[in-house]
């Protein structure tokens, strides 16, 4: 991710709650040759190494374009928490146009930061709580992804994940546990979640960040 493209980012200080005119205003998506697919660290991105099932599963998913600055900007917003070993949560907003999703909004809601799930200080993985959160989004939008950033994990600092479908999705659908717990293996031994293969980093795509932690509620 090149630093110079970050100058295109508009960071808004939000002064009121939803609906925000900033969120409802979306520029037409850019089209250009400078996009690049998200490559998975420590993994082979050669599609030929995917099983035919995985290829079939990834083929029916729409592509998701993301700003090249998304990860860095989120880490910047999270830095204060990360230094205290606290987790920071953000929600991505996207719009759908011509069969492609464009992620143009990062919302950092008001939150009580906890160190319970320890992503800032440990490795890049999806906890059981993350998996249940991911399920609630993915059951509505099959393309929904969960981004995990673990800045102190030297082997892998970030992952863009989704539940495997149908195996991981059925395990989460049937699980009614809360808190941290373990999930049973899938029937065929495949992973419960996997790297998303339909992510394209688009340096021309703008990103708006709404950090609601700084909002003073109206009287
Ligand atoms: Zn569960």
TrEMBL record:
BP GO annotations: protein K63-linked deubiquitination
SUPFAM superfamilies xrefs: JAB1/MPN domain
Recorded superkingdom: Eukaryota
Region of interest (Disordered), ranges: 25-57
Annotated Gene3D superfamilies: Cytidine Deaminase, domain 2
Biased amino acid composition, Polar residues: 45-56
PANTHER family: AMSH-LIKE PROTEASE, FI19924P1
Protein's name according to its UniProt entry: AMSH-like ubiquitin thioesterase 2 isoform X3
Species of the source: Sesamum indicum (Oriental sesame)
